[in-house]
Every structure is written in C-alpha cells, then in structure tokens.
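Re: the request from the purification team.
They wanted to know what the chain is likely to look like in 3D before they choose a buffer screen. I agreed to run a prediction and write the result into the notebook, where they can find it.
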Amino acid sequence: HARFDALWRQYRYQLLLTPDPMLRLYGWFPGYELDHEQLRKCVAITLGEHDFSGFSKKNEDLPHHRCTILAAAIERDDSSAVLQIRFRANRFLRSMIRGLVGAAVTVARRRESTGWFRECLDERKQMEQITLAPARGLILEKVFYPDSAF
C-alpha cells in the first residue's frame, strides 16, 4: 500500500532568503532576516521520537501522534538564496512539517526562544499558538519501501 508500506518519507521545505519572483511558488520568503543558528537548533530538537500533536492539525481518528524523525538538516548552497530544511521520518502528521517550520521561523526571527520551541514539542501546545508555514514551500522528496513491498 503506497501509504502504509513505506518505511520512511522525506520532505524538504524551502525558505527563500530574499524575495524571488521565479521561486515564489516553490518557497516561502518570511520577510525577515533569520538567525540560521537558531533554525538549526530547532531542527535538531525534532530528532528522535516525539508526540507531534501540537504541530499538526487535530485528527481524533489516529491511534497516536508519535513520529520518529530519523534525520533533519538545513542546507544552503553558497550561491543560492534558498535555505532547504529536510526531515526524514517514519511517518508525518497532517501539517506537521509546516508547523515545525513555522515555529522554527518564529524562533529564528528572535520572537521566541529555542526553549519555547522545545516546550511546544514537549507539552504538545495547540496549533493555534504556532504559525503554519505556507504550503508552497513543502516538497515530498523521497519515499522508501522495503524490498518485500515489491
């Protein structure tokens, strides 16, 4: 099954560091200068198994909201004005990546601290307190299936 047999999935979120009319449909320019080190700290906090219910839209039909982030990284080419945030996990919840990126950008704008980000994750704060990043920057990059699925 395309959805249930996958071992992991990888998403990329593209943040534009400068406004670019050619990339505006494929990335988000938050309109503020971002502290890249704070972004990296937030992304690193997500590694491992956590309950991401605070970063996702409510879905009472799910048996649980635990996901395991297997890899998370931020990349940028020196020549590029695009910051790429990648997350690889065993599963993702609805709007989870957009919630994580939105909260990380809030920290990177210096409006909140990394402690606030960790608190949102640990205490599963409700989505209303977290700004969702726009969908236009989100790209599904890879899906890995076991050989037995074929």
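For the purification team: The mean pLDDT is 89.
Please add any questions underneath this entry.
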